Amino acid sequence: KPTTSREIEDGNGLSSWNDVASKQAIMAFVEEVTNPESPHFIEEKDRIATFDNDGTLWSEQPMYFQFFFAIDRIKAMSEDHPEWKDKQPYKAVLENDMDALMAQGGTGLLQLVMASHTGLTTDEFERIVRDWISTAKHPTKNKPYTELVFQPMLELVKYLQQHEFKVFIVSGGGVDFMRPWAEEVYGIPRDQIVGSSFKTEYAYNDGKPEIMILPEIDLNDDKEGKPIGIHSYIGRKPVFAAGNSDGDLQMLRWADANIKKSFKLYVHHTDGEREWAYDSTSHIGTFKAGWEEALQKDWVIVDMKRDWKIIYPNDGGNTD
Amino acid sequence: KPTTSREIEDGNGLSSWNDVASKQAIMAFVEEVTNPESPHFIEEKDRIATFDNDGTLWSEQPMYFQFFFAIDRIKAMSEDHPEWKDKQPYKAVLENDMDALMAQGGTGLLQLVMASHTGLTTDEFERIVRDWISTAKHPTKNKPYTELVFQPMLELVKYLQQHEFKVFIVSGGGVDFMRPWAEEVYGIPRDQIVGSSFKTEYAYNDGKPEIMILPEIDLNDDKEGKPIGIHSYIGRKPVFAAGNSDGDLQMLRWADANIKKSFKLYVHHTDGEREWAYDSTSHIGTFKAGWEEALQKDWVIVDMKRDWKIIYPNDGGNTD
Ligand SMILES: [Ca+2]
Ligand SMILES: [Ca+2]
What is the architecture, at CATH level 2, of domain A5-62+146-315? Predict the structure, then answer.
Protein backbone atom coordinates (compact mmCIF):
# COMPACT_ATOMS: atom_id res chain seq x y z
CA LYS A 1 0.00 0.00 0.00
CA PRO A 2 1.57 3.29 -1.06
CA THR A 3 1.98 6.15 1.33
CA THR A 4 -0.56 8.70 0.24
CA SER A 5 -0.61 12.35 1.11
CA ARG A 6 -3.38 11.71 3.59
CA GLU A 7 -1.01 9.56 5.56
CA ILE A 8 1.53 12.34 5.83
CA GLU A 9 1.32 13.40 9.39
CA ASP A 10 0.38 16.92 10.20
CA GLY A 11 3.29 19.12 10.98
CA ASN A 12 6.07 17.14 9.36
CA GLY A 13 6.29 19.86 6.72
CA LEU A 14 8.67 19.14 3.90
CA SER A 15 10.62 16.44 5.69
CA SER A 16 11.72 14.59 2.54
CA TRP A 17 13.36 17.77 1.25
CA ASN A 18 16.97 18.54 2.00
CA ASP A 19 17.54 21.93 3.56
CA VAL A 20 18.23 23.54 0.22
CA ALA A 21 17.40 26.83 -1.49
CA SER A 22 14.23 25.49 -3.16
CA LYS A 23 12.74 24.33 0.14
CA GLN A 24 13.71 27.58 1.83
CA ALA A 25 12.15 29.61 -0.97
CA ILE A 26 8.88 27.65 -0.78
CA MET A 27 8.62 28.07 2.97
CA ALA A 28 9.55 31.75 2.87
CA PHE A 29 6.88 32.38 0.20
CA VAL A 30 4.17 30.53 2.10
CA GLU A 31 5.02 32.24 5.35
CA GLU A 32 5.01 35.64 3.72
CA VAL A 33 1.75 35.39 1.79
CA THR A 34 -0.16 33.81 4.68
CA ASN A 35 0.94 36.46 7.15
CA PRO A 36 -1.86 39.06 7.49
CA GLU A 37 0.74 41.67 8.47
CA SER A 38 2.68 41.21 5.26
CA PRO A 39 2.21 43.61 2.32
CA HIS A 40 2.08 40.46 0.14
CA PHE A 41 -0.65 38.78 2.19
CA ILE A 42 -2.98 36.72 0.02
CA GLU A 43 -6.55 36.03 1.11
CA GLU A 44 -7.55 32.38 1.33
CA LYS A 45 -9.89 32.58 -1.64
CA ASP A 46 -6.98 33.65 -3.84
CA ARG A 47 -4.61 30.92 -2.65
CA ILE A 48 -4.87 28.81 -5.79
CA ALA A 49 -2.07 26.34 -6.49
CA THR A 50 -1.86 24.38 -9.75
CA PHE A 51 0.30 21.29 -10.26
CA ASP A 52 1.11 19.49 -13.44
CA ASN A 53 0.87 15.70 -12.99
CA ASP A 54 3.12 13.66 -15.32
CA GLY A 55 6.74 14.27 -14.30
CA THR A 56 5.69 16.67 -11.54
CA LEU A 57 3.64 14.52 -9.17
CA TRP A 58 4.61 11.10 -10.54
CA SER A 59 7.10 9.67 -13.02
CA GLU A 60 6.53 9.65 -16.76
CA GLN A 61 9.24 7.36 -18.16
CA PRO A 62 9.79 5.46 -20.39
CA MET A 63 6.44 6.91 -21.46
CA TYR A 64 3.36 8.53 -19.94
CA PHE A 65 1.69 6.00 -17.64
CA GLN A 66 -1.64 6.71 -19.25
CA PHE A 67 -0.19 5.32 -22.44
CA PHE A 68 0.60 2.03 -20.69
CA PHE A 69 -3.04 2.01 -19.71
CA ALA A 70 -4.06 2.54 -23.35
CA ILE A 71 -1.86 -0.34 -24.45
CA ASP A 72 -3.17 -2.70 -21.79
CA ARG A 73 -6.69 -1.70 -22.70
CA ILE A 74 -6.12 -2.32 -26.41
CA LYS A 75 -4.84 -5.79 -25.55
CA ALA A 76 -7.87 -6.48 -23.36
CA MET A 77 -10.21 -5.25 -26.10
CA SER A 78 -8.50 -7.25 -28.86
CA GLU A 79 -10.63 -10.36 -28.22
CA ASP A 80 -13.58 -8.42 -29.59
CA HIS A 81 -11.49 -7.04 -32.47
CA PRO A 82 -9.90 -9.95 -34.37
CA GLU A 83 -9.22 -7.54 -37.26
CA TRP A 84 -6.69 -5.67 -35.11
CA LYS A 85 -4.03 -8.36 -35.41
CA ASP A 86 -3.38 -7.33 -39.00
CA LYS A 87 -4.05 -3.62 -38.66
CA GLN A 88 -1.72 -0.87 -37.48
CA PRO A 89 -1.31 0.66 -34.98
CA TYR A 90 -3.09 -2.19 -33.11
CA LYS A 91 -0.85 -4.88 -34.61
CA ALA A 92 2.25 -3.24 -33.13
CA VAL A 93 0.62 -3.12 -29.70
CA LEU A 94 -0.51 -6.74 -29.81
CA GLU A 95 2.96 -7.83 -30.92
CA ASN A 96 4.68 -5.65 -28.29
CA ASP A 97 6.63 -4.11 -31.15
CA MET A 98 7.56 -0.70 -29.77
CA ASP A 99 9.61 0.27 -32.82
CA ALA A 100 6.69 -0.36 -35.16
CA LEU A 101 4.44 1.47 -32.71
CA MET A 102 6.63 4.56 -32.60
CA ALA A 103 6.84 4.46 -36.41
CA GLN A 104 3.06 5.10 -36.43
CA GLY A 105 3.75 8.62 -35.20
CA GLY A 106 1.29 10.92 -33.47
CA THR A 107 -1.68 9.84 -35.57
CA GLY A 108 -1.19 6.21 -34.63
CA LEU A 109 -0.86 7.04 -30.96
CA LEU A 110 -3.97 9.19 -31.04
CA GLN A 111 -5.83 6.32 -32.68
CA LEU A 112 -4.87 4.05 -29.78
CA VAL A 113 -5.97 6.63 -27.23
CA MET A 114 -9.31 7.10 -28.98
CA ALA A 115 -9.93 3.36 -29.25
CA SER A 116 -9.08 2.77 -25.60
CA HIS A 117 -10.70 5.84 -24.01
CA THR A 118 -13.88 6.56 -25.95
CA GLY A 119 -17.07 4.88 -27.09
CA LEU A 120 -18.18 3.93 -23.61
CA THR A 121 -19.96 5.64 -20.74
CA THR A 122 -18.20 7.69 -18.08
CA ASP A 123 -19.26 5.14 -15.44
CA GLU A 124 -17.82 2.25 -17.46
CA PHE A 125 -14.56 4.09 -18.05
CA GLU A 126 -14.27 4.86 -14.34
CA ARG A 127 -14.54 1.17 -13.48
CA ILE A 128 -11.96 0.19 -16.10
CA VAL A 129 -9.41 2.73 -14.84
CA ARG A 130 -9.99 1.68 -11.23
CA ASP A 131 -9.40 -1.96 -12.11
CA TRP A 132 -6.26 -1.16 -14.07
CA ILE A 133 -4.63 1.19 -11.58
CA SER A 134 -5.14 -1.30 -8.74
CA THR A 135 -3.45 -4.17 -10.59
CA ALA A 136 -1.05 -2.84 -13.24
CA LYS A 137 2.68 -2.53 -12.58
CA HIS A 138 5.36 -0.40 -14.13
CA PRO A 139 7.40 -2.48 -16.64
CA THR A 140 10.85 -1.75 -15.21
CA LYS A 141 10.21 -0.50 -11.66
CA ASN A 142 7.82 -3.42 -11.18
CA LYS A 143 5.67 -1.44 -8.79
CA PRO A 144 2.09 -0.14 -8.94
CA TYR A 145 2.02 3.20 -10.71
CA THR A 146 0.55 4.85 -7.63
CA GLU A 147 3.79 4.07 -5.80
CA LEU A 148 5.77 6.01 -8.40
CA VAL A 149 4.56 9.32 -7.02
CA PHE A 150 7.03 11.84 -5.65
CA GLN A 151 6.95 11.86 -1.86
CA PRO A 152 8.45 15.38 -1.60
CA MET A 153 5.72 16.70 -3.91
CA LEU A 154 2.97 14.96 -1.89
CA GLU A 155 4.41 16.76 1.11
CA LEU A 156 4.39 20.05 -0.77
CA VAL A 157 0.72 19.58 -1.74
CA LYS A 158 -0.14 18.83 1.86
CA TYR A 159 1.94 21.73 3.17
CA LEU A 160 0.08 24.15 0.89
CA GLN A 161 -3.28 22.67 1.87
CA GLN A 162 -2.37 23.08 5.53
CA HIS A 163 -1.82 26.76 4.76
CA GLU A 164 -5.28 27.04 3.20
CA PHE A 165 -4.16 26.87 -0.41
CA LYS A 166 -6.68 25.18 -2.70
CA VAL A 167 -4.56 22.77 -4.72
CA PHE A 168 -5.51 21.73 -8.26
CA ILE A 169 -3.98 19.32 -10.73
CA VAL A 170 -3.74 20.86 -14.21
CA SER A 171 -2.48 18.10 -16.43
CA GLY A 172 -2.12 17.31 -20.09
CA GLY A 173 -3.27 13.81 -19.10
CA GLY A 174 -6.89 12.79 -19.28
CA VAL A 175 -9.16 14.08 -16.54
CA ASP A 176 -11.28 10.91 -16.65
CA PHE A 177 -8.10 8.85 -16.33
CA MET A 178 -6.85 10.73 -13.25
CA ARG A 179 -10.00 11.25 -11.22
CA PRO A 180 -10.64 7.60 -10.25
CA TRP A 181 -7.36 7.38 -8.27
CA ALA A 182 -5.77 10.82 -7.89
CA GLU A 183 -8.12 11.97 -5.14
CA GLU A 184 -7.00 9.19 -2.85
CA VAL A 185 -3.35 9.11 -3.89
CA TYR A 186 -2.70 12.86 -3.81
CA GLY A 187 -5.41 14.05 -1.43
CA ILE A 188 -6.77 16.41 -4.09
CA PRO A 189 -10.57 16.36 -4.59
CA ARG A 190 -11.91 15.13 -7.92
CA ASP A 191 -13.39 18.51 -8.81
CA GLN A 192 -9.95 20.06 -8.35
CA ILE A 193 -8.50 17.88 -11.09
CA VAL A 194 -8.30 19.58 -14.48
CA GLY A 195 -7.09 17.67 -17.50
CA SER A 196 -7.53 16.89 -21.15
CA SER A 197 -10.98 15.69 -22.07
CA PHE A 198 -13.13 14.30 -24.82
CA LYS A 199 -16.45 15.62 -25.94
CA THR A 200 -19.37 13.80 -24.37
CA GLU A 201 -23.02 13.19 -25.06
CA TYR A 202 -25.90 12.83 -22.64
CA ALA A 203 -28.33 9.98 -23.23
CA TYR A 204 -31.52 9.06 -21.40
CA ASN A 205 -32.76 5.60 -22.19
CA ASP A 206 -35.31 3.61 -20.19
CA GLY A 207 -35.20 6.24 -17.48
CA LYS A 208 -31.43 5.90 -17.08
CA PRO A 209 -29.19 8.90 -17.68
CA GLU A 210 -25.71 8.21 -19.03
CA ILE A 211 -22.85 10.18 -20.48
CA MET A 212 -21.08 8.71 -23.48
CA ILE A 213 -17.44 9.59 -24.21
CA LEU A 214 -17.04 10.59 -27.85
CA PRO A 215 -13.90 10.18 -30.00
CA GLU A 216 -13.26 13.89 -30.29
CA ILE A 217 -10.92 16.03 -28.18
CA ASP A 218 -12.67 18.71 -26.11
CA LEU A 219 -9.85 20.33 -24.12
CA ASN A 220 -6.19 19.65 -24.87
CA ASP A 221 -4.94 20.75 -21.46
CA ASP A 222 -1.31 21.25 -22.40
CA LYS A 223 0.79 24.32 -23.26
CA GLU A 224 -1.65 27.19 -24.01
CA GLY A 225 -4.45 24.79 -23.04
CA LYS A 226 -3.32 25.04 -19.41
CA PRO A 227 -4.20 28.70 -18.82
CA ILE A 228 -7.38 28.08 -20.79
CA GLY A 229 -8.22 25.11 -18.55
CA ILE A 230 -7.35 27.16 -15.46
CA HIS A 231 -9.61 30.01 -16.52
CA SER A 232 -12.41 27.65 -17.42
CA TYR A 233 -12.31 25.40 -14.35
CA ILE A 234 -10.86 27.62 -11.66
CA GLY A 235 -11.65 31.14 -12.81
CA ARG A 236 -8.68 32.91 -11.25
CA LYS A 237 -4.95 32.94 -11.85
CA PRO A 238 -2.87 30.75 -9.56
CA VAL A 239 -0.44 32.15 -7.03
CA PHE A 240 1.56 28.92 -7.03
CA ALA A 241 2.27 26.82 -10.11
CA ALA A 242 4.49 23.76 -10.50
CA GLY A 243 5.50 21.83 -13.60
CA ASN A 244 8.40 19.97 -15.14
CA SER A 245 8.42 20.68 -18.85
CA ASP A 246 7.94 23.19 -21.64
CA GLY A 247 4.26 22.15 -21.65
CA ASP A 248 3.92 23.96 -18.32
CA LEU A 249 5.50 27.22 -19.40
CA GLN A 250 2.18 28.89 -20.27
CA MET A 251 0.76 27.86 -16.90
CA LEU A 252 3.76 29.30 -15.06
CA ARG A 253 3.48 32.51 -17.06
CA TRP A 254 -0.23 32.64 -16.14
CA ALA A 255 0.71 32.48 -12.45
CA ASP A 256 3.45 35.04 -13.08
CA ALA A 257 0.82 37.40 -14.56
CA ASN A 258 -1.13 37.34 -11.28
CA ILE A 259 -1.08 40.80 -9.72
CA LYS A 260 -0.56 39.05 -6.42
CA LYS A 261 2.80 37.64 -5.49
CA SER A 262 3.24 34.22 -7.06
CA PHE A 263 5.59 31.25 -6.95
CA LYS A 264 6.77 29.39 -10.03
CA LEU A 265 8.42 26.00 -9.59
CA TYR A 266 10.01 23.59 -12.04
CA VAL A 267 10.98 20.03 -11.17
CA HIS A 268 14.18 19.04 -12.99
CA HIS A 269 14.70 15.31 -13.55
CA THR A 270 18.36 14.92 -12.60
CA ASP A 271 18.38 11.59 -10.84
CA GLY A 272 19.20 8.77 -13.25
CA GLU A 273 19.72 6.35 -10.42
CA ARG A 274 16.63 6.76 -8.27
CA GLU A 275 14.36 7.98 -11.09
CA TRP A 276 15.30 9.13 -14.61
CA ALA A 277 17.57 11.92 -15.80
CA TYR A 278 16.35 13.89 -18.81
CA ASP A 279 15.55 17.39 -19.97
CA SER A 280 16.16 19.35 -23.16
CA THR A 281 16.47 16.44 -25.60
CA SER A 282 13.86 14.11 -24.13
CA HIS A 283 10.73 13.41 -26.17
CA ILE A 284 8.74 12.94 -22.98
CA GLY A 285 8.84 16.00 -20.74
CA THR A 286 11.03 18.20 -22.93
CA PHE A 287 12.51 20.89 -20.68
CA LYS A 288 14.33 23.56 -22.66
CA ALA A 289 12.35 26.78 -23.25
CA GLY A 290 10.97 26.47 -19.72
CA TRP A 291 14.47 26.00 -18.30
CA GLU A 292 15.75 29.10 -20.07
CA GLU A 293 12.82 31.25 -18.96
CA ALA A 294 13.03 29.95 -15.40
CA LEU A 295 16.70 30.94 -15.20
CA GLN A 296 16.02 34.33 -16.72
CA LYS A 297 13.08 35.09 -14.42
CA ASP A 298 14.55 33.53 -11.32
CA TRP A 299 11.88 30.88 -10.93
CA VAL A 300 12.70 28.01 -8.61
CA ILE A 301 14.15 24.87 -10.20
CA VAL A 302 14.11 21.78 -8.03
CA ASP A 303 17.05 19.47 -8.69
CA MET A 304 15.58 16.08 -7.79
CA LYS A 305 18.92 14.45 -7.07
CA ARG A 306 20.25 17.28 -4.95
CA ASP A 307 17.04 18.52 -3.28
CA TRP A 308 15.13 15.37 -2.37
CA LYS A 309 16.07 12.85 0.32
CA ILE A 310 13.78 10.27 -1.21
CA ILE A 311 11.89 10.17 -4.49
CA TYR A 312 9.11 7.64 -3.90
CA PRO A 313 7.11 7.05 -0.72
CA ASN A 314 8.64 3.63 -0.13
CA ASP A 315 12.24 4.66 -0.74
CA GLY A 316 12.57 5.36 2.96
CA GLY A 317 12.53 2.97 5.91
CA ASN A 318 9.17 1.38 5.18
CA THR A 319 10.14 -0.66 2.11
CA ASP A 320 7.67 -3.25 0.90
CA LYS B 1 -25.46 46.45 1.04
CA PRO B 2 -27.22 43.12 0.53
CA THR B 3 -27.17 40.43 3.14
CA THR B 4 -24.88 37.78 1.76
CA SER B 5 -24.70 34.21 2.84
CA ARG B 6 -21.49 34.95 4.68
CA GLU B 7 -23.43 37.23 6.96
CA ILE B 8 -25.86 34.52 7.87
CA GLU B 9 -24.94 33.67 11.38
CA ASP B 10 -23.88 30.18 12.22
CA GLY B 11 -26.57 28.05 13.67
CA ASN B 12 -29.60 29.98 12.53
CA GLY B 13 -30.32 27.11 10.16
CA LEU B 14 -33.21 27.65 7.81
CA SER B 15 -34.80 30.48 9.78
CA SER B 16 -36.51 32.13 6.81
CA TRP B 17 -38.34 28.90 6.07
CA ASN B 18 -41.73 28.20 7.56
CA ASP B 19 -41.97 24.90 9.39
CA VAL B 20 -43.30 23.10 6.34
CA ALA B 21 -42.80 19.71 4.70
CA SER B 22 -40.03 20.93 2.37
CA LYS B 23 -37.93 22.28 5.24
CA GLN B 24 -38.52 19.14 7.28
CA ALA B 25 -37.53 16.95 4.32
CA ILE B 26 -34.29 18.89 3.78
CA MET B 27 -33.29 18.68 7.41
CA ALA B 28 -34.22 15.00 7.70
CA PHE B 29 -32.12 14.21 4.63
CA VAL B 30 -29.08 16.14 5.83
CA GLU B 31 -29.27 14.64 9.29
CA GLU B 32 -29.58 11.14 7.88
CA VAL B 33 -26.75 11.26 5.34
CA THR B 34 -24.32 13.00 7.70
CA ASN B 35 -24.89 10.51 10.49
CA PRO B 36 -22.07 7.93 10.41
CA GLU B 37 -24.40 5.40 12.03
CA SER B 38 -26.94 5.67 9.24
CA PRO B 39 -27.04 3.09 6.42
CA HIS B 40 -27.36 6.10 4.09
CA PHE B 41 -24.29 7.89 5.46
CA ILE B 42 -22.44 9.81 2.74
CA GLU B 43 -18.72 10.53 3.09
CA GLU B 44 -17.74 14.20 2.89
CA LYS B 45 -16.01 13.80 -0.47
CA ASP B 46 -19.30 12.61 -1.98
CA ARG B 47 -21.41 15.42 -0.53
CA ILE B 48 -21.78 17.35 -3.77
CA ALA B 49 -24.69 19.79 -4.04
CA THR B 50 -25.54 21.55 -7.30
CA PHE B 51 -27.76 24.62 -7.55
CA ASP B 52 -29.20 26.25 -10.62
CA ASN B 53 -28.89 30.05 -10.46
CA ASP B 54 -31.59 31.96 -12.40
CA GLY B 55 -34.93 31.42 -10.66
CA THR B 56 -33.33 29.18 -8.03
CA LEU B 57 -30.87 31.47 -6.23
CA TRP B 58 -32.11 34.80 -7.58
CA SER B 59 -35.05 36.10 -9.61
CA GLU B 60 -35.23 35.89 -13.39
CA GLN B 61 -38.18 38.13 -14.36
CA PRO B 62 -39.17 39.87 -16.54
CA MET B 63 -36.07 38.36 -18.16
CA TYR B 64 -32.75 36.82 -17.18
CA PHE B 65 -30.68 39.46 -15.41
CA GLN B 66 -27.71 38.64 -17.61
CA PHE B 67 -29.78 39.85 -20.53
CA PHE B 68 -30.23 43.23 -18.85
CA PHE B 69 -26.45 43.28 -18.61
CA ALA B 70 -26.17 42.54 -22.34
CA ILE B 71 -28.56 45.38 -23.16
CA ASP B 72 -26.75 47.87 -20.94
CA ARG B 73 -23.47 46.79 -22.45
CA ILE B 74 -24.76 47.21 -26.02
CA LYS B 75 -25.86 50.73 -25.12
CA ALA B 76 -22.47 51.51 -23.61
CA MET B 77 -20.70 50.13 -26.69
CA SER B 78 -22.93 51.97 -29.16
CA GLU B 79 -20.72 55.09 -29.12
CA ASP B 80 -18.10 53.07 -30.94
CA HIS B 81 -20.70 51.54 -33.26
CA PRO B 82 -22.64 54.34 -34.99
CA GLU B 83 -23.85 51.78 -37.55
CA TRP B 84 -25.92 50.05 -34.84
CA LYS B 85 -28.59 52.74 -34.77
CA ASP B 86 -29.94 51.49 -38.11
CA LYS B 87 -29.18 47.83 -37.69
CA GLN B 88 -31.22 45.16 -35.92
CA PRO B 89 -31.13 43.79 -33.30
CA TYR B 90 -29.05 46.71 -31.98
CA LYS B 91 -31.54 49.34 -33.16
CA ALA B 92 -34.29 47.80 -31.04
CA VAL B 93 -32.02 47.86 -27.98
CA LEU B 94 -30.95 51.46 -28.50
CA GLU B 95 -34.57 52.53 -28.97
CA ASN B 96 -35.74 50.49 -25.95
CA ASP B 97 -38.19 48.81 -28.29
CA MET B 98 -38.83 45.49 -26.56
CA ASP B 99 -41.42 44.35 -29.09
CA ALA B 100 -39.03 44.86 -31.98
CA LEU B 101 -36.31 43.14 -29.93
CA MET B 102 -38.44 40.08 -29.22
CA ALA B 103 -39.37 39.96 -32.90
CA GLN B 104 -35.68 39.29 -33.65
CA GLY B 105 -36.08 35.85 -32.12
CA GLY B 106 -33.33 33.63 -30.76
CA THR B 107 -30.82 34.58 -33.44
CA GLY B 108 -31.14 38.27 -32.62
CA LEU B 109 -30.74 37.63 -28.89
CA LEU B 110 -27.70 35.45 -29.48
CA GLN B 111 -26.20 38.22 -31.60
CA LEU B 112 -26.61 40.65 -28.70
CA VAL B 113 -25.03 38.21 -26.29
CA MET B 114 -22.09 37.63 -28.62
CA ALA B 115 -21.55 41.35 -29.22
CA SER B 116 -21.67 42.15 -25.50
CA HIS B 117 -19.78 39.16 -24.09
CA THR B 118 -17.02 38.32 -26.56
CA GLY B 119 -14.13 39.91 -28.43
CA LEU B 120 -12.36 41.04 -25.27
CA THR B 121 -10.04 39.50 -22.72
CA THR B 122 -11.25 37.62 -19.66
CA ASP B 123 -9.69 40.30 -17.44
CA GLU B 124 -11.53 43.09 -19.28
CA PHE B 125 -14.83 41.23 -19.12
CA GLU B 126 -14.38 40.69 -15.38
CA ARG B 127 -13.97 44.43 -14.81
CA ILE B 128 -17.02 45.27 -16.93
CA VAL B 129 -19.25 42.82 -15.05
CA ARG B 130 -17.99 44.08 -11.69
CA ASP B 131 -18.76 47.67 -12.64
CA TRP B 132 -22.21 46.77 -13.90
CA ILE B 133 -23.31 44.59 -11.00
CA SER B 134 -22.27 47.23 -8.47
CA THR B 135 -24.31 49.99 -10.12
CA ALA B 136 -27.18 48.53 -12.18
CA LYS B 137 -30.71 48.27 -10.77
CA HIS B 138 -33.63 46.07 -11.65
CA PRO B 139 -36.12 47.99 -13.81
CA THR B 140 -39.22 47.39 -11.69
CA LYS B 141 -37.90 46.33 -8.28
CA ASN B 142 -35.47 49.26 -8.43
CA LYS B 143 -32.88 47.42 -6.40
CA PRO B 144 -29.41 46.11 -7.18
CA TYR B 145 -29.67 42.67 -8.73
CA THR B 146 -27.61 41.19 -5.90
CA GLU B 147 -30.43 42.09 -3.51
CA LEU B 148 -32.86 40.02 -5.55
CA VAL B 149 -31.40 36.79 -4.25
CA PHE B 150 -33.52 34.36 -2.29
CA GLN B 151 -32.70 34.56 1.40
CA PRO B 152 -34.10 31.09 2.17
CA MET B 153 -31.86 29.61 -0.54
CA LEU B 154 -28.80 31.45 0.79
CA GLU B 155 -29.61 29.84 4.12
CA LEU B 156 -29.92 26.45 2.46
CA VAL B 157 -26.52 26.84 0.76
CA LYS B 158 -24.99 27.80 4.08
CA TYR B 159 -26.75 24.99 5.92
CA LEU B 160 -25.37 22.43 3.48
CA GLN B 161 -21.88 23.93 3.69
CA GLN B 162 -22.04 23.74 7.47
CA HIS B 163 -22.73 20.03 7.04
CA GLU B 164 -19.63 19.65 4.84
CA PHE B 165 -21.43 19.62 1.54
CA LYS B 166 -19.44 21.13 -1.31
CA VAL B 167 -21.92 23.44 -3.01
CA PHE B 168 -21.68 24.25 -6.72
CA ILE B 169 -23.68 26.52 -8.97
CA VAL B 170 -24.58 24.78 -12.24
CA SER B 171 -26.27 27.43 -14.32
CA GLY B 172 -27.36 28.02 -17.89
CA GLY B 173 -26.06 31.54 -17.36
CA GLY B 174 -22.54 32.53 -18.30
CA VAL B 175 -19.77 31.40 -15.98
CA ASP B 176 -17.72 34.53 -16.70
CA PHE B 177 -20.79 36.63 -15.88
CA MET B 178 -21.40 34.94 -12.52
CA ARG B 179 -17.91 34.52 -11.13
CA PRO B 180 -17.14 38.22 -10.52
CA TRP B 181 -19.94 38.57 -7.93
CA ALA B 182 -21.43 35.17 -7.05
CA GLU B 183 -18.58 34.18 -4.76
CA GLU B 184 -19.24 37.08 -2.44
CA VAL B 185 -23.03 37.13 -2.76
CA TYR B 186 -23.63 33.39 -2.34
CA GLY B 187 -20.50 32.34 -0.46
CA ILE B 188 -19.67 29.82 -3.20
CA PRO B 189 -16.04 29.81 -4.43
CA ARG B 190 -15.38 30.83 -8.03
CA ASP B 191 -14.07 27.40 -8.99
CA GLN B 192 -17.35 25.89 -7.79
CA ILE B 193 -19.32 27.90 -10.30
CA VAL B 194 -20.18 26.03 -13.48
CA GLY B 195 -21.98 27.78 -16.31
CA SER B 196 -22.25 28.32 -20.01
CA SER B 197 -19.05 29.45 -21.66
CA PHE B 198 -17.49 30.65 -24.85
CA LYS B 199 -14.46 29.24 -26.53
CA THR B 200 -11.30 31.15 -25.69
CA GLU B 201 -7.86 31.68 -27.13
CA TYR B 202 -4.57 32.18 -25.34
CA ALA B 203 -2.32 34.97 -26.57
CA TYR B 204 1.16 35.97 -25.46
CA ASN B 205 2.21 39.39 -26.67
CA ASP B 206 5.10 41.46 -25.35
CA GLY B 207 5.54 39.00 -22.52
CA LYS B 208 1.93 39.40 -21.39
CA PRO B 209 -0.39 36.37 -21.36
CA GLU B 210 -4.07 37.00 -22.04
CA ILE B 211 -7.15 34.96 -22.77
CA MET B 212 -9.49 36.26 -25.46
CA ILE B 213 -13.19 35.38 -25.39
CA LEU B 214 -14.29 34.16 -28.83
CA PRO B 215 -17.79 34.47 -30.33
CA GLU B 216 -18.44 30.73 -30.26
CA ILE B 217 -20.31 28.74 -27.62
CA ASP B 218 -18.18 26.18 -25.80
CA LEU B 219 -20.54 24.69 -23.19
CA ASN B 220 -24.28 25.35 -23.23
CA ASP B 221 -24.83 24.47 -19.59
CA ASP B 222 -28.57 23.93 -19.75
CA LYS B 223 -30.78 20.84 -19.98
CA GLU B 224 -28.52 17.92 -21.05
CA GLY B 225 -25.61 20.35 -20.79
CA LYS B 226 -26.00 20.32 -17.00
CA PRO B 227 -25.01 16.69 -16.39
CA ILE B 228 -22.28 17.18 -18.97
CA GLY B 229 -21.02 20.27 -17.12
CA ILE B 230 -21.26 18.40 -13.82
CA HIS B 231 -19.23 15.49 -15.14
CA SER B 232 -16.68 17.77 -16.71
CA TYR B 233 -16.19 20.21 -13.81
CA ILE B 234 -17.08 18.15 -10.76
CA GLY B 235 -16.51 14.56 -11.83
CA ARG B 236 -19.09 12.93 -9.63
CA LYS B 237 -22.87 12.87 -9.47
CA PRO B 238 -24.48 15.20 -6.95
CA VAL B 239 -26.36 13.96 -3.90
CA PHE B 240 -28.33 17.20 -3.71
CA ALA B 241 -29.65 19.13 -6.71
CA ALA B 242 -31.90 22.16 -6.83
CA GLY B 243 -33.53 23.91 -9.76
CA ASN B 244 -36.70 25.69 -10.82
CA SER B 245 -37.43 24.76 -14.42
CA ASP B 246 -37.47 22.10 -17.08
CA GLY B 247 -33.89 23.11 -17.87
CA ASP B 248 -32.87 21.50 -14.58
CA LEU B 249 -34.62 18.19 -15.14
CA GLN B 250 -31.53 16.46 -16.54
CA MET B 251 -29.49 17.67 -13.56
CA LEU B 252 -32.05 16.36 -11.10
CA ARG B 253 -32.15 13.03 -12.92
CA TRP B 254 -28.33 12.92 -12.75
CA ALA B 255 -28.53 13.32 -8.97
CA ASP B 256 -31.33 10.75 -8.89
CA ALA B 257 -29.03 8.29 -10.72
CA ASN B 258 -26.48 8.52 -7.90
CA ILE B 259 -26.19 5.15 -6.16
CA LYS B 260 -26.07 7.11 -2.92
CA LYS B 261 -29.20 8.59 -1.44
CA SER B 262 -29.96 11.92 -3.09
CA PHE B 263 -32.26 14.90 -2.69
CA LYS B 264 -34.02 16.59 -5.59
CA LEU B 265 -35.58 20.00 -5.04
CA TYR B 266 -37.63 22.27 -7.27
CA VAL B 267 -38.43 25.89 -6.43
CA HIS B 268 -41.91 26.79 -7.64
CA HIS B 269 -42.57 30.47 -8.30
CA THR B 270 -45.97 30.94 -6.68
CA ASP B 271 -45.68 34.38 -5.14
CA GLY B 272 -46.97 37.04 -7.50
CA GLU B 273 -46.93 39.64 -4.79
CA ARG B 274 -43.49 39.33 -3.26
CA GLU B 275 -41.81 37.94 -6.39
CA TRP B 276 -43.41 36.59 -9.59
CA ALA B 277 -45.84 33.74 -10.14
CA TYR B 278 -45.23 31.60 -13.22
CA ASP B 279 -44.65 28.02 -14.30
CA SER B 280 -45.86 25.88 -17.19
CA THR B 281 -46.66 28.64 -19.68
CA SER B 282 -43.82 31.05 -18.90
CA HIS B 283 -41.16 31.60 -21.55
CA ILE B 284 -38.59 32.25 -18.84
CA GLY B 285 -38.24 29.35 -16.45
CA THR B 286 -40.79 27.02 -18.03
CA PHE B 287 -41.79 24.47 -15.38
CA LYS B 288 -43.94 21.70 -16.80
CA ALA B 289 -42.10 18.45 -17.58
CA GLY B 290 -40.07 18.97 -14.41
CA TRP B 291 -43.20 19.53 -12.37
CA GLU B 292 -44.79 16.33 -13.66
CA GLU B 293 -41.70 14.23 -13.03
CA ALA B 294 -41.22 15.74 -9.58
CA LEU B 295 -44.77 14.78 -8.61
CA GLN B 296 -44.38 11.32 -10.03
CA LYS B 297 -41.04 10.67 -8.32
CA ASP B 298 -41.88 12.41 -5.08
CA TRP B 299 -39.18 15.07 -5.38
CA VAL B 300 -39.57 18.08 -3.11
CA ILE B 301 -41.31 21.12 -4.57
CA VAL B 302 -40.87 24.35 -2.64
CA ASP B 303 -43.90 26.64 -2.84
CA MET B 304 -42.30 30.07 -2.44
CA LYS B 305 -45.44 31.75 -1.19
CA ARG B 306 -46.32 29.07 1.32
CA ASP B 307 -42.84 27.90 2.39
CA TRP B 308 -40.80 31.09 2.72
CA LYS B 309 -41.22 33.77 5.40
CA ILE B 310 -39.29 36.24 3.29
CA ILE B 311 -38.06 36.14 -0.30
CA TYR B 312 -35.25 38.68 -0.42
CA PRO B 313 -32.66 39.44 2.28
CA ASN B 314 -34.06 42.90 2.92
CA ASP B 315 -37.71 41.83 3.11
CA GLY B 316 -37.30 41.42 6.84
CA GLY B 317 -36.70 43.99 9.55
CA ASN B 318 -33.61 45.58 8.05
CA THR B 319 -35.16 47.39 5.10
CA ASP B 320 -33.00 49.89 3.24
CA1 LIG C 1 4.63 17.17 -17.14
CA1 LIG D 1 -33.40 28.35 -13.68
Answer: 3-Layer(aba) Sandwich (3.40)
